[in-house]
Amino acid sequence: MNAPGTEVRDVRTRGPLASALSRGAVFFGLWLLLTNAASADLAPGLVTAVAASWISLRLMPAEQGGLRLVSLVKFLLHFLRQSIVAGTEVALLALHPRLPLRAGYIIYQPQLPPGTRRNVFCAITSLMPGTLPCGSADGNGLAIHCLDVTQSVIEQLSAEEALCIQTLGEVQRDG
Fold first, then answer.
1. In angstroms, what CA-CA distances link 93 with 65, 86, 104, 134?
2. pTM for the complete prediction?
3. C-alpha torsion sign, points 111, 74, 122, 26
4. Helix axis angle, 69-95 relative to 153-168, nearest 10°?
């Protein structure tokens, strides 16, 4: 057990080489999708993937921890289901004349510290119908615009953040 207030992180470390290789594979796979894997485009695709990997490592260096594939698949399935359900709810709220919108702002206190992982969480949250991160709030908070402030938005955001943390390989703080 850790002392209260200490942060626990996933102990796996991805070095620059592993990160470069995985990014290169993703960029090359994307190239293959975009070009229908045409044989004439393989050499330019490799050069482009190497250049894109180098640039991405310069802009966003390899960090401790890493993406967990099984958790990523679970998260993507959850995200798809949640998007359909929330999108339907938003459409009903917006189009049904007797269901009033109760739009407003809430302040959410995230567990993720400022940085790349929090930015990923905000980007994912912005894609979910009915909520939109609008910027920083007092202290460590995030201002979130939502269509219905009477819903349990903070609890939903907390659950989404926990899934995001699990997927990105970072463990929440103890205490």
1. 40, 10, 14, 21
2. 0.56
3. positive
4. 160
- The token pair at 125 is 């949250």
Cβ atoms of residues 108 and 148 within 8 Å:
no
| Rounded Cα–Cα distance for residues 85 and 130 (Å) | 11
Structure tokens at 73: 């698949």
Read off the amino acid at residue 69.
L
Task: Evaluate whether 125 touches 158 at the Cβ level (below 8 Å).
Answer: no
DSSP 129: T
Give yes or no for a contact between 88 and 59, defined as CB atoms under 8 angstroms apart.
no
Give pLDDT tens digits for 126-163.
Answer: 877 788 899 888 888 999 998 888 888 889 899 889 88
- Cβ partners under 8 Å of residue 166, min gap 6: 68, 71, 75
For residue 173, give Cα distances in angstroms to 111, 112, 149: 8, 9, 28
Which residues are paired to 108 by β-bridges? 142
**Reported confidence tier of residue 13, pLDDT bands at 50, 70, 90:** very low
Beta strands in the chain (DSSP E): 104-108, 131-136, 142-146
Dihedrals φ, ψ of 131, to 5°?
-135, 145
CA distances (Å), origin 130, targets 51, 65, 111, 147, 151? 38, 31, 21, 5, 11
Report DSSP letters for 109-144, one per residue. Answer: --SSPTTHHHHHHHHHHHHSTTEEEEEE-STT-EEE
